[in-house]
Specification:
single chain; alpha/beta; 6-stranded mixed beta sheet; 31 helices; 18 strands
Length: 691
């Protein structure tokens, strides 16, 4: 290097030092200036806490007590040629991070043990063969000793070396921690280099993308993350982040993040871009795997509809994608699967995109949710602004929408009258588009739980409950149930079986239904009570009727009679109300009358669960042939539950927990799950007191 260049670098260093001193700055970056010694004027910066001297030509360090301020918290002298560290390093008692990576150190001074605040030490890739025992006194949390000639390690370092290697989340967390006092400075990129490289290589993205993505992951908690959120967290300006627009865009293209424009008004200048983490990306990160976008080429017709269902959910339910993005994604999905007859027919109609998306929403509801009717509100939910749906709404109501004119959809009928705000696919289109799916639809529904998909779970009952459940399993056994039904038919009696499980929350009512279904090979059709309630007159009654109509169809198509499960049925089996009190009471009574009538005509198995029985209508009590009361588990049962949920518990510990706390099985399971999560996050098992 010429003397002119060296002089220029020294001048540059002095300029940075002067500006730092005049501005009372805490961060001084003198990296990459080829300095062969530390400028003495640094000692005049009394506010200095961060000093980066990496990538210079330092071959010796003068006495720290004369050169560096005692306020220093972060010192980076990596990528130099230092053979030793002076004993006076012990004077830097505020030091929290010391990076001497890639030098020529043969040893560390004993005085390093005086750095009582030091929690991060990087001495990797030197020539050190022995570490001083004083290092055991340091409060180290992170220590990198790779690339040395160490034969043995002090106890403290050995413990850190044995610690579980960092996961993808762990490396992201370290990136966030190391950014804290450095922003997006060179000092940060050097100190966090190994963690940034790990994330970048694992996800196959650039280093700066790894940093930006780490911050979005750290800030995202179901609420979209804005540029302001990221800037505040990194402690840098929004203008600086805008420089990385292309990197944010690339993360979007790779499907790691999704952007969405939020606005509190109709004016465009109030819009701001925020970012979300798609659920499948989070799942991949939890598995410590690189996220691979879902393959959507060469799908079967079932896989196509499953993918379409996820896209509609992302738009309508999760609000992860806009209507425009939904349209784009669906078009890509169809293009990637143009060999399917369904896609050929849809494309063959040559519909405008907006009309095609509406038609596909009808198909999605019919196939995936097994719901034949959609109203105006359900259709409008896809659109970001309701004004975008206004033209469709007007034409649908007036009957001159293209999908109605060309016979794709038609109005539904209620009591012989056409409903101008409710529509369904025409029979012609169902047969033309969806005939190959008709026999599969019940099992595609989200509310159908096939018996073979239910995982076995060991349940613990009090003696009385165990006897009743045992008899119920015998009764619902395929051969026994068929024989009993044949005898009832011969005697001219009703063949339906209605059972009620009642008791406090968390006592295993719902899980017992699942295990009964698994043991007897019966699928479950789940009823979400909340979905049957509607503010619209007559709609709740229609939904209840539709449930039983679907169940009858399901029974006919099943070789083994499925179970119709009304979970948490308190809201529909309570005492009937005075119809003169309100319209709501009238609707609820109408729903109960429908259910009572359906129970009379039931040709299948209905199980209802409820937490309350005091308020049950007497008419429902008579309809339930079999009733099982679930009580909180006794002492011995609680002990068994504790040991089944936390297998590492000793008999004494399980007995102590069972004696001390009168928990239900559900409460014990929640505690066990929380303990498992804490163990994953901290790496240590929580004590009994923490449980």
């Amino acid at each position: 290097m010429t003397s002119i260049v060296l002089q220029n670098n020294i001048h540059e260093a002095e300029t940075r030092i002067r500006l730092c001193r005049e501005r009372f700055a805490k961060n001084l970056d003198l990296s990459g200036l080829c300095l062969d010694k530390i400028p003495e004027t640094i000692k005049d910066i009394h506010s200095l806490t961060i000093l980066n001297l990496s990538e210079n030509h330092l071959t010796r360090l003068s006495d720290f007590s004369d050169t560096l301020p005692a306020t220093l918290e972060y010192l980076d002298v990596s990528y130099n040629k230092l053979p030793v560290l002076p004993e006076s390093i012990g004077n830097l008692t505020s030091l929290e991070t010391l990076n001497v990576r890639c030098n020529e150190l043969m040893e560390l001074p004993e005085a390093i043990g005086k750095l009582t605040m030091l929690n991060t030490l990087d001495i990797s890739y030197n020539r050190i063969s022995v570490l001083p025992e004083s290092i055991n006194t340091l409060p180290l949390e992170h220590c990198n000793v790779r690339g040395n000639n160490l034969q043995t390690l002090p106890e403290k370092i050995a413990v850190l070396a044995r610690s579980k290697s960092l996961t993808l989340f762990g490396h992201m967390e370290r990136i966030i921690e190391l950014t804290g006092k450095n922003g997006l400075s060179n000092a940060f990129f050097l100190s966090a280099k190994s963690h940034i490289e790990y994330v970048a290589q694992k996800l196959n993205i650039t280093p700066i993308q790894a940093v930006l993505f780490s911050y979005i992951v750290a800030e995202y908690d179901s609420t979209p993350v804005s540029l302001n959120d990221i800037a505040n967290s990194i402690d840098c300006s929004k203008i600086k982040l805008i420089q990385y627009t292309d990197d944010f865009k690339e993360l979007e293209n790779r499907r790691f993040i999704r952007s969405c424009s939020n606005t509190n008004s109709h004016w465009s200048y109030n819009r701001r871009t925020t970012y979300r983490i798609p659920r499948e990306v989070t799942d991949a990160l939890i598995r410590n795997e690189e996220y691979q976008p879902v393959n959507q080429s060469n799908l079967s017709i079932d896989e196509l509809f499953a993918r379409m269902e996820r896209l509609f959910e992302q738009c309508v339910k999760d609000h992860e994608i806009s209507y425009e993005e939904l349209s784009s994604e669906i078009n890509l999905l169809l293009d990637d699967n143009r060999r399917l007859d369904f896609v050929k027919k849809i494309r063959g109609y040559s519909l405008p995109d907006n009309d095609m998306i509406l038609l596909l929403r009808f198909c999605h509801y019919f196939v995936n949710i097994n719901q034949d009717e959609l109203d105006i509100r359900c259709l409008s939910a896809m659109y970001d602004c309701q004004s975008d749906f206004t033209a469709h709404k007007r034409k649908l109501k007036h009957g001159d929408h293209a999908l109605i004119i060309h016979g794709f959809i038609e109005n539904t009928n209620s009591d012989g009258f056409s409903d101008r705000e409710s529509f369904k696919l025409t029979d012609k289109i169902k047969n033309e588009l969806l005939s190959e799916l008709k026999n599969k639809m019940p099992h595609n529904s989200k509310d159908i739980i096939p018996a073979q998909t239910i995982q076995e779970k060991n349940l613990f009952y009090n003696r009385k409950e165990a006897d009743q459940i045992g008899r119920l399993v015998s009764f619902l056994n395929k051969d026994s149930f068929r024989e009993i039904q044949d005898r009832l038919i011969q005697s001219g009696m009703r063949t339906g079986f209605a059972c009620l499980f009642f008791g406090p929350p968390g006592t295993g009512k719902s899980e017992t239904v699942y295990q009964l279904a698994r043991q007897t090979g019966r699928d479950i059709m789940m009823v979400d009570i909340s979905q049957t309630k509607s503010m619209w007159f007559g709609e709740s009654e229609r939904k209840i009727k539709e449930i039983f109509t679907r169940y009858r169809s399901f029974v006919e198509k099943s070789t083994v009679t499925p179970i119709l499960l009304f979970n948490e049925a308190d809201a529909v089996i309570g005492k009937r109300k005075d119809v003169s009190s309100s319209a709501v009471a009238q609707t609820e009574n109408a729903i109960q009358n429908i259910i009572l009538q359906e129970l009379e005509n039931l040709k299948g198995i209905l199980i209802a669960t409820t937490n309350l029985t005091e308020n049950m209508d007497k008419a429902f009590e008579r309809r339930f042939l079999y009733k099982v009361e679930f009580q909180k588990p006794g002492l011995l049962i609680r002990q068994s539950i504790w040991q089944s949920m936390i297998t590492s518990l000793s008999n004494d510990d399980a007995r102590e927990l069972a004696s001390r706390y009168d928990f239900s099985g559900g409460q014990i399971e929640n505690i066990a799950r929380k303990r498992a999560i804490d163990f994953v996050l901290s790496g240590t098992e929580p004590s009994l007191d923490r449980l």
